[in-house]
TrEMBL record:
It holds the Pfam family MFS_1. It comes from Pantoea sp. BJ2. Keywords: Membrane, Transmembrane, Transmembrane helix, Transport. It is a multi-pass membrane protein. Coiled coil: none annotated. Residues 27-434 form the Major facilitator superfamily (MFS) profile domain. InterPro entries: MFS (IPR011701), MFS_dom (IPR020846), MFS_trans_sf (IPR036259). It is found in: Membrane. The lineage of its organism: Bacteria, Pseudomonadati, Pseudomonadota, Gammaproteobacteria, Enterobacterales. GO terms for molecular function: transmembrane transporter activity. This is MFS transporter.
Length: 450
């Protein structure tokens, strides 16, 4: 169906802008909080590594394997989880995910053997599967193209800001060691996992699955938003007809997205798991102070995301080039971390974190805008699940190299090579130019930039 077949009101653009403004004010803060807690629960294992290894008898290689097993469970259940979200709605499914992963984090506080660690990390991946791609699919049901890059940048800023809180928070909880006769790392799991369950319950009262169910939108805003989203879905489906549903899933562009995201997660999650250990080379800091220092690189990443959020909407035809540049910046950071003093390595981690997070801001608007509605849920989940296997591969190899060489240098060299190859591929490849903005979408791009 074309735009001419819809009867758009004279105030269509104004109603869209008003509806999206309400969504940003009412829903985005809760999604941001959920993603912050999500990242804290993922990353806390890196902060308790030393204590957990001592109490449970886990070697560096076993820790790397266990940290990576999370992504096996995550990948296996990612697509089914997103299909359930499409069926049951974001309000039900995203809150279910959050409550169950909180339960698994609490159970991790009872780990006493490597086998327990492996099992619970795998189950954490199963419980959390579909959460981030579910948020992206949720945007497909609410946010038109002209605002989606900005919305994605906002939630990615939340995942980065998690590391502003996770370091100091986890460091402070670790200082509760022996309170009540409980080890500090156990307190981390009990407090942070319990917090996830509480916030999951609160989210059930805030999230609204689709615009039609939002009591805080006027009828005119609901109609305008439904019309705009339908117009954009129709445009994507016109492209999908050429390939067929299953043909598009096996299309080379989708495979390319999976491989690109695989290399991105290799860098991203290695930074998450090993950044605290890299910073611990700087002498004279306790666990809380180390946590504060760990937050600094992510603060710089948040600033970069804030500055580039609107650009991802305005320059959608150049997103792949921006992604290539961001990955080369991440490569420079990981390479520089192998040189010089510990403080120089810390500065290098700032560069790597900026490149890693900005990469995601350039990457996700591409499949979100290009995948047709008929396969959006499984398509986004497939990219995320296959790509996230990089989160299994990188920590496992990194831990193996650290155990056999006694240094993080080999792992950082490997990450540098992967990022350089992917970045150059994106800069040098020739990609078809996307269709030009229609009149309505050009207006929306201008409005979203203000």
């Amino acid at each position: 169906m074309t735009q001419q077949q819809y009867v758009l009101s004279p105030d269509h653009d104004a109603h869209i802008a008003s509806a999206i403004g309400k969504f940003f004010r009412r829903i985005i803060p809760m999604l941001a909080l959920m993603l912050i807690v999500n990242q804290i629960d993922r990353a806390n294992i890196g902060f308790v590594k030393a204590e957990l290894q001592t109490d449970a008898g886990i070697s560096a290689a076993a820790f790397g394997l266990g940290a990576g097993l999370f992504f096996i469970g995550y990948a296996l259940f990612e697509v089914p989880s997103n299909m359930m979200l499409k069926k049951l709605g974001a309000r039900v499914w995203l809150t279910r995910i959050m409550i169950t992963w909180g339960m698994v984090v609490v159970l991790t506080g009872f780990v006493s053997t490597p086998l327990h660690f492996y099992l619970l990390r795998f189950l954490l991946g199963v419980a959390e599967a579909g959460f981030f791609p579910g948020v992206l699919f949720y945007f497909r049901q609410w946010v038109p193209n002209a605002w989606r890059g900005r919305a994605t940048a906002m939630v990615l800023s939340a995942t980065a800001s998690a590391f502003l809180f996770s370091g100091p928070l986890t460091g402070a909880i670790l200082m509760m060691h022996d309170v009540g006769g409980i080890a500090g790392w156990k307190w981390v799991m009990f407090v942070e996992g319990g917090g996830s369950m509480v916030i999951g319950l609160l989210a059930a009262f805030v999230l609204v699955s689709k615009p039609q169910g939002a009591k805080w939108l006027s009828d005119a805003e609901k109609q305008a938003l439904a019309q705009q989203l339908a117009l954009e879905d129709d445009a994507r489906e016109e492209h999908a007809v050429k390939h067929g549903r299953w043909g598009l899933i096996s299309d080379r562009s989708l495979l390319s997205y999976c491989l690109i995201f695989f290399t991105m997660t290799m860098t991203g999650y290695t930074l998450v798991f090993w950044l605290p250990q890299i910073i611990q080379r700087i002498q004279g800091f306790n666990s809380f102070e180390t946590g504060l220092l760990t937050a600094v690189p992510w603060l710089f990443a948040i600033v970069a995301l804030f500055l580039l959020g609107k650009a991802t909407d305005r320059y959608r035809d150049k997103l792949d080039k921006g992604l290539g540049i961001a990955m080369l910046i991440a490569a420079c950071g990981t390479f520089m971390a192998t040189l010089g003093t510990p403080w120089f390595g810390f500065v290098a981690m700032i560069v790597a974190c900026i490149g890693s997070k900005v990469s995601a801001a350039f990457f996700w608007p591409m499949p979100q805008s290009e995948l047709p509605a008929s396969i959006a849920a499984p398509g986004i989940a497939l990219i995320n699940s296959i790509g996230n296997l990089g989160g299994f591969f990188a920590p496992t190899v990194f831990g193996y190299l650290e155990m056999h060489t006694g240094s993080t240098t080999g792992g950082l060299y490997a990450l540098t090579s992967v990022s350089v190859v992917t970045g150059l591929y994106l800069l040098l490849r020739r990609k078809p130019v996307p269709p030009a903005f229609g009149h309505t979408e050009r207006n929306h791009v201008r409005q979203s930039s203000h």
